Amino acid sequence: MKNTENKVPKVFLDTNILLDYILFRNDEALAAEYIFDSSLDLKLKIYIAAHSLTNIFYALRKAFPIEEQNQVIRLLCSLCTVQPINAENIEKAIDSAYTSDLEDALQIQCAIESDCDYFITRDQALFKKCPIKTLLPHELVRELSL
């Protein structure tokens, strides 16, 4: 872990984990809820990529009316530190060897730019290439004893 023992772990959440949490759509949703609860208890700090917000807004268009979509986005912005997207981190993502999928590479690049200790995703392909310790949500809950 990058942080010293007395520092709060920095956790980056991939878009799929955010959607699991919002839609409570699979077994990892409960672990994602523990992660968010732990951030409220100041046991960890959550980071997300700015483009995750637009992806989530789009994904929720059939499940929620526009007012509720906006509330979800505002809530995520209040609970998480949003890593901005700029030309430099897009170029780094394109040039990286993390994955050929630009969206995934940009997620990883944003986690690196945020100096996160953990990258949380369900995308098994990212476990092999991500230079940050990559875990499933329930693995993070167990590792940090949340």
Quickly describe the structure.
The protein has 146 residues and is α/β, with parallel strands linked by helices.
Q: What does this protein look like?
A:
This protein is an alpha/beta fold and 146 residues long. It has one domain (10-143): 5'-nuclease (Rossmann fold, 3-Layer(aba) Sandwich), CATH 3.40.50.1010. The chain has 8 helices and 5 strands; from the N terminus they run βααβααβααβαβα. It has helices at 15-23, 28-40, 50-59, 66-79, 87-95, 102-113, 124-129, 137-143; strands spanning 10-13, 45-49, 81-83, 118-120, 133-135. The chain has a 5-stranded parallel beta sheet with strand order 3-2-1-4-5, sandwiched between helices. Strand 4 (118-120), helix 7 (124-129) and strand 5 (133-135) form a beta-alpha-beta unit. The model has no long low-confidence stretch (mean pLDDT 91).
User: How large a portion of the residues is in β-strands, by DSSP E?
Assistant: 5-15%
The CATH H-level superfamily is 5'-nuclease
Strand line-up of the largest beta sheet = 3-2-1-4-5
Q: What is the number of E strands? A: 5
How many independent structural domains?
A: 1
Average pLDDT works out at: 91
Question: What is the radius of gyration?
Answer: 15 Å
Tell me what the CATH architecture is. 3-Layer(aba) Sandwich
DSSP helix count?
8
